[in-house]
Amino acid sequence: MKIIIAGAYTIGSHLAKLLSRNNQDIVLIDENEDNLARLRADFDLLTMHASPTSLKTLKEAGVAAADLFIAVTPDEYKNITACGLAHALGAKKTVARIDDSEFQQQDNEEIFHKMGVSSLIYPEMLAAKDIANGLKMSWVRQRWDVHDGALVMLGIKLRETCEVLNRPLKELCGPDDPYHVVAIKRGPDTIIPGGNDVLKLYDLTYFMTTRNYIPHVRKIVGKEHYADVKDVMIMGGGGTAVHALQAIPDYMDVKIMEKDEARCELLNDIITRDKVMVINGDGRDISLLVDEGIRNMQAFVALTGNAEANILACLSAKRMGVRKTVAMVENMDYAEMAEGFDIGTIINKKAIAAGYIYQMMLDANVHNVKFLTTANADVAEFIPVEGSRVTKKPVKDLGLPKGMTIGGLVRNGEGLLVSGNTLIEAGDSVMVFCHSVDMKKIEKFFN
Fold it and tell me: DSSP secondary structure string, 21-60?
């Protein structure tokens, strides 16, 4: 598959890393030679120091044969223009990163299609949805609902109160048990577990279950004493915070700390929902946090553009008794450090956006792809076709690649957990977890 990426900034760089590990034919275009040099040294890809809106550049990059053209420079208008040119020159599918929510309104989609833009991606909106999802349960680091909650993935940090530590998973996750452990992050290592693996203290563990059994999972991991989130404090009043407010449930009371006075005035004008208070102040000011009731909050969300400030603010909030902390961290190295500091949920816009784009390079039977930032693993939803390899034998006899497991499936709207004896049927929505496995290799089981 030939993929051309315009923009070697945060999203483009991360996407290039993801795709290069799958041995794709990648061309990366950027006007900044330093950006290209960093990636060229570590990854197998062709780089071009040029403008992505140059017809000559696009032709030399081979855009006429491109299966996917991705424009993710910081300039949304340049991205849209580059996609239009790429489409006109023969690119099969184009994706443009944008920063204006108006562009994504449904009645505007046809306009962009006519301009040659197949899809628009708005990282702040995607991040906002992840933040809102994470706030719904204070005891969960990460949550992902599949088919409106028919299946639910929960990422949970295991503490001393966990009931299922140090026991082989084959004793815990049998055919009749209402959950499966599908991935474990232990220190720097990611484990796609087998029956002999055990859960250990401080593991970040990913469970697959159904909505009805979420209370059961909460009980066995010892999180019943965690208070549900009703009061939230947000540090930083930028675009991500505004979009998060639109997605956060109405029953939550929210305080936003923003140090720029003019921005505070704008926030007061544009925020329409009730139960939101905008406070002019620095969220790193401990005395201000105490005065504004930080000790009574169940969640603290740090969304400034400064990763270090977000991490430190979350650490301070945890020391003052806040159970749930969320930090926006754009530097992947800092994301690993934040996990080591036991920051709760890490939001990385480039990883979220890259995962969204990633699924566009896969076949049509792959409907969702999510990159688990802290675990360096992928979750994907596959729909097998009639006669595909995965439908011919029980799961235990399929010979799945090492580093891959099937967590569950949705059949006729009902979520079902998968055991070794499960026979997958054509048309099922199958949730696959993988670490260091070429997604194309997995696709062969479902095609």
Answer: TTT-EEEEEES-HHHHHHHHTTS--EEEES-TT-HHHHHH
pLDDT tens digits, residue range 389-434? 999 999 989 998 888 889 889 999 899 988 888 999 999 989 888 8
pLDDT at res. 189: 86
Short-list 20, 7, 10, CA closest to 358: 20
Q: How far is CA 57 from CA 24, 138, 194, 391, in A?
A: 20, 49, 48, 45
3-state SS assignment for residue 154: strand
Q: Could you give the 3-state DSSP secondary structure of residue 439?
A: helix
CATH class of 2-121: alpha beta
- Tell me which residue of 75, 136, 124, 99 sits closest to 305, measured CA to CA: 124
138-221 CATH, one of 3.30.360.10, 3.30.70.1450, 3.90.1170.20, 3.40.50.300: 3.30.70.1450
Domain boundaries, the chain: 2-121, 138-221, 228-322, 353-444
φ, ψ for residue 423, nearest 5 deg: -105, 115
pLDDT at 176: 77
403, burial (CB in 10 Å: exposed 0-12, middle 13-18, buried 19+): middle
CA dist 280 and 258 (Å) reads 5
Task: Evaluate whether the domain defined by 353-444 bears CATH number 3.30.70.1450.
Answer: yes
Rounded to an integer, the average pLDDT of 318-344 is: 82
Mean pLDDT of the chain: 87
Work out the average pLDDT over 75-101. Answer: 94
Query: Fold for domain 228-322?
Result: Rossmann fold (3.40.50)
pLDDT tens-place string over residues 267-296: 999 998 888 999 999 988 899 999 999 999
Name the pTM for this structure: 0.79
138-221 and 228-322 share one fold: no
Long-range contacts of 199-202, Cβ-Cβ distance < 8 Å, separation of 24 or more: 199/158, 199/162, 199/164, 199/165, 199/166, 199/167, 199/169, 199/172, 200/158, 200/165, 200/166, 201/158, 201/159, 201/160, 201/162, 201/165, 202/157, 202/158, 202/159
